[in-house]
Amino acid sequence: xxxxxxxxxxxxxxxxxxxxxxxxxxxxxxxxxxxxxxxxxxxxxxxxxxxxxxxxxxxxxxxxxxxxxxxxxxxxxxxxxxxxxxxxxxxxxxxxxxxxxxxxxxxxxxxxxxxxxxxxxxxxxxxxxxxxxxxxxxxxxxxxxxxxxxxxxxxxxxxxxxxxxxxxxxxxxxxxxxxxxxxxxxxxxxxxxxxxxxxxxxxxxxxxxxxxxxxxxxxxxxxxxxxxxxxxxxxxxxxxxxxxxxxxxxxxxxxxxxxxxxxxxxxxxxxxxxxxxxxxxxxxxxxxxxxxxxxxxxxxxxxxxxxxxxxxxxxxxxxxxxxxxxxxxxxxxxxxxxxxxxxxxxxxxxxxxxxxxxxxxxxxxxxxxxxxxxxxxxxxxxxxxxx
Length: 387
Hints:
Elements: H1 7-14, E1 19-23, H2 30-37, E2 45-49, H3 53-58, H4 62-67, E3 73-77, H5 85-95, E4 102-106, H6 109-119, E5 124-128, H7 142-148, H8 152-155, H9 160-181, H10 188-201, H11 208-215, H12 219-231, E6 235-238, E7 254-257, H13 260-267, H14 272-276, H15 281-296, E8 302-307, E9 313-319, E10 325-330, H16 340-349, E11 353-358, E12 364-365, E13 370-374, H17 375-382
Parallel strand pairs: 1-4, 1-5, 2-3, 3-4, 10-11, 11-13
Antiparallel strand pairs: 6-7, 8-9, 9-10, 12-13
Helix pairs in contact: 7-13, 9-13, 10-13, 11-12
């Protein structure tokens, strides 16, 4: 098994929190990680996969079954398909409040969090397991990770064709099966068209009215669909930073696919040669860099973009856990030309650190404090120090 960065924090929280939630997209490796850490838990464990009929039936009388394993860590996979269990888990936790009683795995964030925050508030701590981040699989090569994305079955596929097929099947399964199982009746044709539109506008400002007009649905419906996609960990809405009341700022979020492989699959880009020649290359690289930084950053970091109507712009503004500002510009070039707008954003925001992130080359600093840095070096060496 490829080691996951989240594992130490997950084990630490299981040592003190009665309920731990591990959420993330399907096929990101939650089950593999949960099975791996069982031997490292402080007590014995029992594992239930609610997609297996046998385990489903074990919980027909859930109170009796779970009470019979009160001395163990009970791991429940795909918890979102049995939402009625949350109230019972709250009651059982209150009866016997001790560390590591339940580890809940789920792949539908809005469904899980809505229910669990109502019934497990103060009892649960959450972790998100993303597809592989670059530092976890750097040996595979950044270009392969960028083109195929971080889902294990895509990244580690034996051939480009198998990777392509897996990404296609993943998308179709999500459209035709996953949302329906959760009770969301989204027209498949509309959802497929929406995914295509997001792929082609990846990295742009979100306009729900434009999406609604193109799809022939209401803006309210588009917002609901975007919430489902975001809550299923497929897209990210990066919010604007507008704490500076004296500036005329852009206030719409930017929209990105979180996994570069899914993004490329929808664009029918399956190799680096095609990607480099595509007009989408710059936006793809920007989204890839942003996602890798967010996946690798320490907990309690915040992320925004900054743009004014007068041209100041920073692709990513990171607020560290200690409150320091880091302005980041992302360039698909090893010899980047730095825009006037980025320097204006630095003047506006007065960050403690400023970076230009590139695909490769050497790390070096300029006299004005600006650092030019390849992504892999930034994630491995610089980011851990920006606290």
